[in-house]
Specification:
- This protein is mainly β.
- It has one domain: predicted glycosyltransferase like domains (Thrombin, subunit H, Beta Barrel), CATH 2.40.10.
- About 10% of the residues lie in helices and about 40% in strands.
- It contains two helices and eight strands; from the N terminus they run αββββββββα.
- The protein has a six-stranded antiparallel β-barrel.
- A hairpin with a 2-residue loop joins strand 4 (about 55-65) and strand 5.
- The chain starts with a helix and ends with a helix.
- The relative contact order is 0.21.
């Protein structure tokens, strides 16, 4: 799934700490989709079945319309799902944070109890800019 252009731009603005002209691929490798370097902080909440874990702070490394790379102190493996919150996207209130369900595509132990992972965007659970309606809830299909 790709994020809408407006939501993608909001995520980039919320998590970017690099210079505005720096949009190069941070790994130097050739990827299917061009990625934008970030460096900001996001909140990750792991999903297991119909329950969720505690919020964990992560560093957003880069993003494309279809996925994100993060470094965090939580071991998630391929196929695991988590909810991504970008706190600065629409202000700091929890109600204003977009919630995006993501699926881990790859992970690597980075040392010092940190893990680097790449995840695809699976579903937008809530987007405060899109409509004032209640956020979508996780269903069995989202967490299976």
């Amino acid at each position: 799934m790709n994020l809408s252009a407006e939501l993608f731009q909001s995520v980039v603005q919320a998590l970017r700490v690099e210079e505005p002209g720096d949009s190069s691929d941070p790994s130097g490798c050739t990827l299917r989709v061009r990625r934008i370097r970030l460096g900001g902080r996001a909140i990750v909440i792991a999903c297991a079945g119909a329950s969720t874990g505690e919020p964990v702070q992560a560093v957003a490394r880069d993003v494309s319309p279809s996925g994100i790379a993060l470094t965090l102190p939580l071991r998630l493996v391929r196929g695991d799902r988590f909810i991504l919150h970008t706190p600065r996207a629409f202000g700091c209130s929890a109600a204003a944070m977009p919630s995006i369900l993501c699926t881990v595509a790859r992970y690597q132990h980075s040392g010092n109890a940190l893990y680097t992972l790449g995840a695809t965007f699976t579903r937008v659970l809530s987007d405060p800019k899109a409509s004032p309606s209640a956020p979508a809830r996780l269903t069995g299909a989202d967490t299976a």
